[in-house]
Write a structure and sequence with these properties.
This protein is an alpha+beta fold and 414 residues long. It is 16% helix and 34% strand. Strands 2, 4, 5, 10, 12, 14, 17, 18, 19, 20 and 22 form an eleven-stranded mixed beta sheet that branches. The longest helix is centred in the C-terminal third of the chain and has 20 residues. The N and C termini lie far apart (67 Å).
């Protein structure tokens, strides 16, 4: 059929005309035929979610836990290996890969990532980045924590949807990459530390926070940025993005005008929003103190590079704020990139205060009491478990005081 046919101009022509592909799924379904459709990953264990020969393309990743420990979202590390490589092209803590900034849950519907609600404390995490491979794909999940992944139930549900192709991949198809970086406290530069407006100058970008530094040729397609503003009720986001392409020096090829502009917001976003391509989906306080999370998908405007890409951002104007930064960069490139090493296990723990462990322990105890009754009274036990899930929802959003109150009402029948 000629490419000039009007059908090729249809918005969904790929769905009508595709040939030479077959669909597959790897998942946690119960091989015995029962309903235990989940995976248990013990401390220090690594589960293989997908091990397939190519050519093909991963099209969708999904996972869910019912009553996880918030630390699970950082203790679990997602890795993807393409074409027999022994080093990963994706190495990111599970929650951060799915845009759970600081291991806090927020519902999100966007072009590449969606976080959908379940009952109370359980959320479905979805990613739709196409991930091609020429000769094979291997996707793993490591549990670096001290307890089984999945908190009270110790269970993970997952799907990996993918395609296999009759013909080899075309020449020039780049591989998908994603990496995590963090700087637990940036160094404040200059004589006006932690002040929003000042007359400092940044003329080289050398002190900027770096989210991606890679050599090769490709396109950057996404960024999740997480900031913990430790300086109180003051706007932290005067920092500009500065993107250095193909070894270019000052001035950068791309120079922005402030943090909120990168993520499509008006001045100083004080409430949460989420759109198809950008969002401030986590805003802990309208006064700007505490935790924030934001994302930008470069769908219509990927950042192209032929030799190298260095994506950076100021932490405050002229880098004068001392805050905690973390990020996930998503990109395609050839040849395969060498990723920076993940921080040690104990440096990845999300920000939690003293109320978290007490609330988590009380919630898990309520869930386990419900599970103990499952054998003798499954209907009543299920209702009690659902009630615990609903009571725990504030815990996963980061409102530990509200979680404690809700769990106390649960224990007293209120």
């Amino acid at each position: 059929m000629s490419n000039a046919h009007p059908l090729f101009r249809h918005a969904f022509s790929d769905l009508l005309l595709g040939r030479g592909a077959s669909s597959r799924r790897a998942s946690s379904w119960d091989r015995s035929g029962g309903n235990r459709d989940f995976l248990t990953i013990g401390p220090g264990e690594t589960a293989v979610l997908l091990d397939e020969s190519g050519p093909g393309c991963v099209t969708h990743l999904y996972c869910a836990m019912v009553l996880p420990d918030l630390r699970d979202y950082r203790n679990a590390v997602l890795r993807c290996f393409w074409d027999g490589a022994t080093a990963p092209s994706v190495e990111v803590p599970l929650g951060d890969f799915f845009a759970l900034a600081h291991a806090r849950t927020r519902e999100l519907q966007s072009a590449f990532v969606t976080v959908n609600p379940g009952v109370g404390s359980t959320y479905g995490l979805n990613a739709y980045f196409p991930m091609p491979f020429a000769s094979g794909a291997r996707v793993t999940l490591e549990n670096r924590g001290s307890a089984p992944l999945g908190g009270a139930l110790g269970a993970l549900w997952f799907h990996v949807d993918y395609e296999l192709y009759d013909a080899p991949l075309p020449v020039g198809v780049d591989r998908f990459h994603a990496c995590y970086r963090q700087e637990r406290r940036t160094a404040a530069v200059g004589g006006r530390p932690n002040v929003t407006h000042h007359d400092g100058r940044n003329v080289d970008g050398s002190e900027n926070y770096v989210a991606l530094d890679t050599a090769g040729a490709g396109r950057m397609v996404g960024l999740v940025l997480e900031i913990e503003n430790r300086q109180g009720a003051t706007w932290y986001g005067e920092g500009d993005d500065m993107v250095f392409i193909d070894g270019g020096r000052w001035p950068p090829s791309i120079h922005g005008t402030g943090t909120e502009e990168i993520f499509g917001g008006g001045a100083c976003p004080a409430r949460e929003y989420a759109g198809p391509y950008s969002g401030f989906h986590l805003v802990e306080s309208e006064r700007f103190d505490g935790l924030v999370g934001m994302y930008r998908w470069y769908v219509h405007d990927p950042i192209h590079f032929s030799r190298s890409l260095r994506w950076t951002i100021e932490h405050g104007h002229a880098n004068n704020f001392a805050n905690a930064y973390a990020s996930v960069a998503y990109w395609y490139q050839s040849p395969r990139a060498v990723l920076p090493p993940l921080p040690p296990y104990d440096e990845l723990e999300p920000p939690l205060d003293g109320r978290y462990d007490a609330a988590r322990d009380a919630l898990f105890a309520a869930a386990r009491r419900a599970l103990q009754a499952m054998a003798t009274d499954p209907d009543r036990a299920a209702k009690r478990l659902f009630a615990a899930c609903r009571a725990g929802d504030p815990l996963y959003r980061g409102d530990f005081a509200a979680a404690i109150a809700a769990i106390q009402r649960l224990d007293t029948g209120g």
